[in-house]
Write a structure and sequence with these properties.
The complex is a heterodimer of chains A (259) and B (318).
Chain A: H1 2-20, H2 23-42, H3 50-84, H4 87-91, H5 97-129, H6 136-160, H7 165-179, H8 182-191, H9 195-207, H10 217-221, H11 230-255
Chain B: H1 2-5, H2 9-41, H3 57-63, H4 68-84, H5 97-113, H6 118-127, E1 130-131, E2 137-138, H7 140-153, H8 159-170, H9 175-186, H10 194-206, H11 209-222, H12 226-259, H13 266-272, E3 287-289, E4 295-297
Antiparallel strand pairs in B: 1-2, 3-4
The chains are: A mainly alpha (259), B mainly alpha (318).
Chain lengths: 259, 318
């Protein structure tokens, strides 16, 4: 058990070292930082509401670039390694596939946390330059974005464990898009006349992750408080969903024939 | 001899490249010219005439994938550009119709996407209503509808019901509704103290004395400073006086309808039984009945919206 944890820790550390040198990560982060910084100029176009415009654009940049990092990098960490066959030297060592997968995931989550903290720092600096502070609601919104990114990273690892990198990326990004449409899926289910459609949409509604629960950006930009208990419940929901995806990923990856 | 006629290698390579370049340049120029001509000839795209994106807000909201707040901001910024681009001279309602409609639709769209966008409602209240060059007011009812939605969605922001009350009293002559909105604004955190006084005055003008007294009593109870409490107690006396004056005027009207002549004094109204008894003036003065049937107090002026004739309340709203 301790050996497995140590192996996971080592793989996670190696993953972080790999990602620190990743050009894709650098480019996406640079794009996000420039986008957040440019929000100050966009805010010049408005009458009042400067802080809202900066906050909206900043949180959007954190989310969009974070999702791209989680999906594209997450897929390359497993599916990419399998395709390039660079996974075999690692698996030839006394390391289980589950340990390898979880180590990769933890390393990616650590990088995502650092990226979100970096981008949030830039956003706080831009707000400070404009004469505003970062509200508690905005910090909660950023934290829930991080949970969403951890969930998307788990999805990317899951899809990467049984399919090609391109398909895994497409599946993961589709999951992100569908995850923000679930309330409409429920409305469709309630209004549908067909029993079959009701049953299928009902199953999809229960199985797919409701990413809108992790979205409190609108509350933050409107200076409204996050309802009591929502942030912790939503964060636990996101973490639980990510853990479920990882268990499925480990199960599939452990039984997959990599030849 | 044949080898002498042969061109040098560099030139023989350059000619095809040059020819390709010339052909490409000619094609690109032709394409650009043809495109420009086709664009001139083509009818205006339907989408280009829209003030807002050609998708309803109900569709954009889910398909913004969690970024609806950003799209709402973009609509708000567009509305500001429309407002900034308006001509500085006064126009008729018809002449400025396109910008008025664009402002209304953009701000409605912004608030449909993000119903909590307080800044958008405030901007709508200030930017949308417009006086026209022919002495009318336009885009007021649209602004009123947007602000009413804002007052429902952002029940914590006193600016929105305040602006709504202002539009209703200033442009629409709806003093009862305006007073209710001022009263709602006065109860919200952060509202300035004068707002409650304005609310009671407007409610009095609109005829809702019960709500005015209720508000004044609540404000007096909540007052944390002695001076504020004294001011509200004074306003309660003003409202009691107003109630008495209205009773006297109603009695005077009954008397005139019954006898065919106006009562000469308060005592005559009491003697005839039209007034149950002479009410006591709460400020220590006394009540008088003018020849035109209007009652007044010798101690204090009645609560009225001053200079009402000078406001736009009599303007025709289009």
């Amino acid at each position: 058990m301790i050996g497995a944890l140590r192996a996971q820790w080592l793989i996670a550390g190696n993953t972080v070292r790999e990602l620190v040198r990743s050009k894709l990560l650098h480019n996406l982060l640079l794009f996000a930082v420039l986008f957040i910084a440019s929000s100050m100029f966009v805010a010049q176009l408005t009458i009042g509401q400067w802080d809202r415009v900066i906050l909206d654009l900043g949180l959007a940049a954190i989310e969009v670039s974070g999702v791209l990092v989680a999906v594209l990098v997450g897929v390359s960490l497993v599916a990419g390694e399998i395709e390039r066959r660079t996974v075999f030297p690692t698996l030839a060592r006394p390391v289980t596939r589950g340990t390898f997968l979880l180590g990769r995931y933890l390393g990616l989550c650590a990088m995502l946390a650092v990226s979100v903290a970096l981008m949030l720092g830039v956003l706080a600096a831009v707000l400070h330059l404009a004469g505003y502070g970062l509200s508690f609601s905005a910090a909660i919104a950023a934290l829930l974005i991080l949970v969403e990114l951890a969930l998307m990273a788990a999805a990317a690892i899951l899809f990467g464990s049984f399919t090609t990198p391109i398909l895994a990326s497409a599946f993961s990004l589709s999951l992100f898009l569908i995850g923000h449409l679930l309330s409409d899926l429920k409305a469709f289910q309630q209004r549908s006349q067909s029993d079959l459609a009701k049953a299928l949409t009902g199953i999809a509604y229960r199985l797919l992750p409701d990413l809108e629960l992790l979205n409190v950006k609108s509350l933050a930009s409107n200076e409204l408080p996050v309802p009591h208990g929502l942030a912790s419940t939503a964060a636990l929901y996101g973490a639980g969903y990510a853990a479920t995806l990882l268990v499925v990923a480990v199960t599939i990856f452990s039984r997959r024939d990599l030849k | 001899m044949a080898s002498d006629r042969r061109l040098p290698v560099s030139i023989s390579l350059a000619i095809p490249s040059l020819a390709t370049g010339v052909v490409l340049a000619a094609l690109a120029t032709s394409a650009a010219l043809l495109r420009a001509r086709a664009e001139r000839l083509a009818p205006v795209a339907v989408e280009a005439t829209f003030d807002i994106p050609n998708f309803p807000a109900e569709v954009v909201r889910p398909f913004s994938f969690g970024l609806r707040s950003v799209i709402s901001d973009l609509m708000f910024l567009q509305a500001i550009q429309v407002h900034g681009g308006r001509k500085k001279t006064m126009l008729t309602a018809q002449e400025g119709r396109r910008d008025d409609r664009a402002l209304n639709r953009l701000l409605t769209y912004a608030t449909d996407l993000d119903p909590h966008f307080a800044g958008s409602y405030r901007f709508a209240g200030n930017a949308m209503p417009r006086q026209t060059s022919d002495g009318k007011a336009t885009n007021v009812l649209e602004a009123e509808a947007l602000l009413a939605k804002g007052a429902r969605e952002r029940a914590d922001d006193w600016h929105i019901p305040f602006t709504l009350g202002f539009l209703q009293s200033y442009y629409l002559d709806h003093f009862a509704a305006a007073g209710q909105n001022f009263a709602a604004a006065a109860r919200l955190p952060g509202a300035p103290q004068y707002l409650g006084l304005l609310a009671t005055r407007t409610l009095t003008e609109g005829g809702n004395l019960d709500l005015a007294e209720h508000l004044a009593a609540a404000m007096a109870d909540q007052a944390t400073e002695e001076s504020a409490e004294k001011e509200w107690q004074e306003r309660l006396l003003d409202l009691r006086m107003e109630r008495h004056l209205r009773q006297i005027e109603t009695a005077a009207a009954h008397y005139a309808a019954r006898t065919g002549r106006r009562a000469a004094s308060l005592a005559e109204l009491v003697r005839s039984g039209d007034l149950a008894g002479a009410p006591r003036e709460p400020h220590g003065g006394r009540y008088e009945l003018a020849a035109n049937g209007e009652a007044r107090s010798t101690a204090k002026a009645r609560l009225r919206i001053r200079g009402r004739k000078g406001t736009l309340a009599a303007l025709e709203v289009q």
